[in-house]
Amino acid sequence: MEWENEKIAAFRSALIDWYEANKRVLPWRENTDPYRIWVSEIMLQQTKVDTVMPYFERFMTWFPTMQDFADAPEERILKAWEGLGYYSRVRNLQAAMKVVVAEHNGVVPSDLEGILALKGVGPYTAGAVLSIAYERAEPAVDGNVMRVISRVLEIDDDIMKQKTRKKFEAALYDLIDPEKPGEFNQGLMEIGALVCTPKKPMCLVCPLQEFCEAHQVGKEEEYPVKIKKTKVKKVFLTSAIVQTGSDQFVIEQRSDTGLLANLWQFPTVDQLENREAMKLAFLQQYGLELELGAEPITHVKHIFSHLVWEVEVFVAQAITAQPSELKLKTVTKAEMEQLAFPVPYQKMWQAFQKGETVQ
């Protein structure tokens, strides 16, 4: 950082004044309880604010205290998280809070080393909780913050690299307001969400315009630099909503490790060329002899961070059922409502309910 102290002070003032005048009313901003802030920050990872709000409010109704959450059975916490995705986040969150309850008397650590020792807590979450809840001058570097600061300081390093995040953190340790670090960090997040957007940033109304080096040369949309190398794998599947009666459905619990661990789904096999091959696959994999519907009732495409599912969905009647040793269960609609299903299977169920198809 080559800015003089006066410029840094002016930057802090412009950002915090704007934030205090323009911040959105959000449920996790009602107070600075570290439990609420921690939950909100985990929910907000890779998820939009509007999506998170009803989840957060329901979560706080179900688990008003850290003790309530730490004591909750896994099935309940997965149901609370249903639809947010990345279910390892809520499992890690509960594991970490159990440690806080057991080893820290229910008080979230207020030091960087202590909070980083908790499962699932990285530098961003640590910085957000420490700065907002405890007014500690720790930066919180997320996507919005990197976009804003990359433009302000014309940082052209690839933001996908870990060493680049360290560069942002170093710059922010110089910039962060030691008197109001929580407002400073939230101000950067808010600017990134509302003004300094990925495309067509609203520079004319940005309180940081005079400090923004990229704006001065008309290159704000060239930042941040992001070189994407990850190849996304496509997986083609066939799922069956299997009925054994008018209100009896066969579902499967996924493995307790790996993708979508322990969540429930409809029986699913690899997509095959014809109906007879699919029926044989369901028989071999599940011990289910099925009468498949004539046509798929829907096609579901779901994008994970590293792969894409393309799923054809059929309604089926079970002719005979000799379940294999997998975690199969027969449930009613009411019972199904109490179980946690991944988003693609929720979409399948919604398509089924619209037609209430019975083969």
From TrEMBL:
Residues 43-194 form the HhH-GPD domain. Keywords: 4Fe-4S, DNA damage, DNA repair, Glycosidase, Hydrolase, Iron, Iron-sulfur, Metal-binding. SMART domains: ENDO3c, FES. Its cofactor is [4Fe-4S] cluster. The keyword Transferase does not apply. InterPro entries: A/G_AdeGlyc_MutY (IPR005760), DNA_glycosylase (IPR011257), Endonuclease3_FeS-loop_motif (IPR003651), HhH-GPD_domain (IPR003265), HhH_base_excis_C (IPR023170), HhH_motif (IPR000445), MIG/MutY (IPR044298), MutY_C (IPR029119). Its EC number is 3.2.2.31. It catalyses: Hydrolyzes free adenine bases from 7,8-dihydro-8-oxoguanine:adenine mismatched double-stranded DNA, leaving an apurinic site. Binds 1 [4Fe-4S] cluster. GO terms for biological process: base-excision repair; mismatch repair. One of its GO terms (molecular function) is adenine/guanine mispair binding. It is an enzyme of class 3 (hydrolase). It comes from the Bacteria. Adenine glycosylase active on G-A mispairs. MutY also corrects error-prone DNA synthesis past GO lesions which are due to the oxidatively damaged form of guanine: 7,8-dihydro-8-oxoguanine (8-oxo-dGTP). NCBIfam families: mutY. Belongs to the Nth/MutY family. This is Adenine DNA glycosylase. It comes from Listeria grandensis. The gene is mutY.
